[in-house]
Amino acid sequence: MKSILFTVKFPVPTRWGMVVLVWLGSVLGGLAAEERAPVADRDEPPLSQIDREYWAYQPVVRPQVPRIDGDIWSRGAIDQFVFARLKEKQLAPVEAAGRLTLLRRVTFDLTGLPPTREEQAGFLAADDLDAAYYQVLDRLLSSSAYGERWAQHWLDLVRFAETDGFEHDLVRPEAWRYRDWVVSALNANLPYDRFLQLQLAADEIVPGDSETWVATGYLLAGPDMPDLNSQEERRHIYLNGMTANLGDVVLGLQVGCAECHHHKVDPISQLDFYRLRACFETIDLFPVKPKSEDDPDAGGEAIPKKLPTARVVWNREKESPASRLWIRGDFRRPGPELTPQFPRILTGTSSSSSLPAQAGRRRALAEWLTRREHPLTARVMVNRVWQHHFGVGLRPTASDFGWLGEDVSHPELLDWLAAEFMESGWDLKQLHRLMLSSATYRLASFPTEQSSSEQWGQLLRDDPQNHWLGRRRRIRLEGEAVRDAMLAISGELNRQAGGPGVRPPLPPAVASTLLKGQWDVTPDPAEHTRRSLYLFARRNLRLPLLEVFDKPDSNLSCSRRLQSTIAPQALHLLNSEFAQDQARSLWTTVSTRTADEGQRIQELYQRVLGRSATSREIQSAQALIASAPDAEGWVDLCHALWNLNEFIYID
If pLDDT is split at 50, 70 and 90, which confidence band does 91 have? Predict the structure, then answer.
């Protein structure tokens, strides 16, 4: 290969210059040795000083909270960090949102459901806004709906479904038990460090508590191909996916990129990947029934029963084979043997000490991930919580804290939150309270007649993407929240919790694409109106309403849902049988409460939009009602309200 001489000038920060240089070097090196792969530790690229000094790999240190003279806006440390950055940019925060806007915002954020008319009236009537708001936070955080709402965010990350995926998409009969465990753990405010530890190693941490083993369903949540000819290949693929998902969800690092080669930019080698994977090598992934009841020649080990009826993991009784690097990620090309270790860049040394030889590897991994000194676990989680409350994380690339991720808008605030989170005992509900009680969270998302046009104009001009948090970002509801809100508002929502996934009727055009038995409708119609969390999660099928509103592909970890704007969204809310049925149910509910036309219109607006109707809206509603015979005009009004942007967006 001929040598290449070139000069590169970087009018950008040194960090990005290094990224491009590393990338160019990896490409040119790859051209020279495409088929060469690591065969021993000596082939592992050394960690550079720049990598070691990268902020995300440094332990979390609580920064000093800034003090700004004349700051009468801030309610706490979060606001002081935000206010300091706004002042630096010569910007100022806008006014606070109105009471009903704030109530609707926080209720959807914490429960995924709208506030009731009674809750609206009580909040409006309160003399002390702050005291009433803190009472709302306490009520919402103690609601069972909180765990249901936030479980969905977690299930998006871990790739949860009740089927295997791929061609046959076979059903996993007991997978729902893991979903229910997540809901229960969040509602019980299980500390986040314990929440993680049990999902990684409950069988090693509490070996006598078989029911808690349900938590290890996390490790079995991803897609699988049980029909592969080679069970060795199946195991290889599954362990690689398990390892990559741990990197995405807990570390916020794309370690899966090192499955076939050294990471092109981040200091994660292919050996790092397979040493981390070795933590899971002891698991008996695909057990079989006891041989007396099954084919005596079947592979795998017998299921121990003492186990709960659920998808859980446990260690092999016999010694696991040696862990290896797999050349180019190919299960047919074994490389050198490896000992289980943590990624070098996160241990503070060039090589970490070995983990237990057999049982106990996952427990050691879980304990290492939740140490106070770990640089990533707390940062990643507080950033995820921030993202769901504010629309975008302080680190916008929530599952990539490496070199290629987007810059942190408020790095000191991120570290302060991470330190506070750990020192609170990894208390998630306290983290919610901290964020939701801030003045930053309470900001308005749009100007009113009383707003300062100059202040809003400057923010929209100088910070159009709202990086510096001078105003509120509007957030669209996910498909599950749209469906659940329609059911709750219409009075049809069945609040029964837990149990196997429910299969409501599908549109004929969708049902016709499935094989017989792939979607047997749940016989009890009352089950069809349960929360979307409890709908049967088939990996290869998403309900049409959820799909058009960007429900993610459960084959992949989703750290932040897309928010597309496409015609089928409006068409579905206009034409689907579900939307029409809920409009009729809403009218039936409202019609039984009062006979007064004006009161009926006001109640519809309060239920659907969380506010009173204006005089102009009342006139338009009356004209629509009068245009159709009998109750059809009222049903049309209910249907029209589903289709307002104000219904599916949170201000």
Answer: very high
